[in-house]
Amino acid sequence: MSDPDRLKRVDALLEGLDDVLPPPRVRSQLRLAANLTQQEIADAVGVKRLAVVRWELGKSNPRRPQRQAYIHLLKRLAERFPEATEPNEDMPTPASVGGSG
């Protein structure tokens, strides 16, 4: 396989990730970094605040058309606050919670 073909396959793989949500912890960190409330997010996306609470806890995920609006919001927040998507030393990671030992 040639290099251009490999690059096309990689691009196709990345395009498929446009509809993927970040982990719940990152969702709330992005909101907090922007100093936004759950109600403000809910109003902008067109849902009740409880829906945003559940999304940030990982209890549920947004459905269309709110999903696209929420993903767009999170991407824009990630561009403005890249530090919010970095691992936080104060927050436990999945490997450190319930790990072997």
Question: Quick gist of this model?
Answer:
The chain is an all-alpha fold. The chain has helices at 3-15, 24-33, 38-45, 49-57, 66-80. The protein contains 5 helices and no strands.
Features:
101 residues, mainly alpha, 434 Repressor (Amino-terminal Domain), 5 helices, disordered C terminus
Helical segment tally?
A: 5
The whole-angstrom Rg is: 16 Å
| CATH-derived topology of the domain at 20-84 | 434 Repressor (Amino-terminal Domain)
Cα distance spanning the termini? 44 Å
Provide the succession of SSEs. HHHHH
- Percent strand: under 5%
* Helicity level: 40-55%
How many strands, what sense, and barrel or not for the largest sheet? none
The CATH architecture of the domain at 20-84: Orthogonal Bundle
* Name of the level-1 CATH class of the domain at 20-84: Mainly Alpha
Strand count: 0
Q: How does the overall form come out from the CA principal axes?
A: elongated
Q: Low-confidence segments, ≥5 residues, pLDDT <50?
A: 91-101
- The SS-based structural class is mainly alpha
